[in-house]
Amino acid sequence: xxxxxxxxxxxxxxxxxxxxxxxxxxxxxxxxxxxxxxxxxxxxxxxxxxxxxxxxxxxxxxxxxxxxxxxxxxxxxxxxxxxxxxxxxxxxxxxxxxxxxxxxxxxxxxxxxxxxxxxxxxxxxxxxxxxxxxxxxxxxxxxxxxxxxxxxxxxxxxxxxxxxxxxxxxxxxxxxxxxxxxxxxxxxxxxxxxxxxxxxxxxxxxxxxxxxxxxxxxxxxxxxxxxxxxxxxxxxxxxxxxxxxxxxxxxxxxxxxxxxxxxxxxxxxxxxxxxxxxxxxxxxxxxxxxxxxxxxxxxxxxxxxxxxxxxxxxxxxxxxxxxxxxxxxxxxxxxxxxxxxxxxxxxxxxxxxxxx
Length: 356
Description:
Radius of gyration: 20 Å
Strand content: 15-25%
Distance between the termini: 31 Å
């Protein structure tokens, strides 16, 4: 039996002309690093699968455990470890570089293979008569990070790296046990007593309430509440992403566009099925969003843009970009503007306003 869900508020309107054609409901949590709630819209206590939105948390062991230093990983490589990228040539090449530094190749990856999400990269591969590899998988950077962690573990145990890595996506593998322990420590949520599923890239995904996810991202932005090693790792990963935001998503993608515009002021990461999380280091706040209908490409990005525009002081190009992203034009195949996606909540002085 599926338990009844709280009716969450409408956060986004899809308008055609001036008529609301569709509504997207969801929940949003904003917390500080001490766990105090700044904003709660909708049900922030219901456990949800955060999917790829927590990749920065899953990458903490890569830095904290010493693998990033051992293999000399660059900003671009560390940023890719936090990514759901479009499979553009630079993404695939960077994943290959990470693996080479650890002494393995794409055969070690267990994320699966799919065509790039980036349209131009699909066409380039197809025109060359090539097939995609695991390096084109949107999670290849995250998995290359897992492989680096596993290679260091193998070396410390005196084990053969390829044999040790086999099955690293399984919940009981030492690599995934370390990743899970880190996720539990950052969120403060008991993952042993919550629902567990399998993510698109084959690793475990654990159901965590938005309250705990937002708290974890506030911790990532400040280091407060993390172990010293994880706090240093979070800072290093945020620095890497600010230096190489293209690696986290890619051409024209929300997370890349926002972090290119705002640099270290925002770390944001989308996840499948309408999840988005962010850290605002200068405010000491973390944000977590879940859309009820799982709408990723449209609704959840509008909500995250609204949260950024409401909470961060913005001017110039950054203010213009976030204004566009909270009131996004919709165009048909002839390029005619037919409607827009818009933040459905309050606005004050033209900017979105978040209310408890």
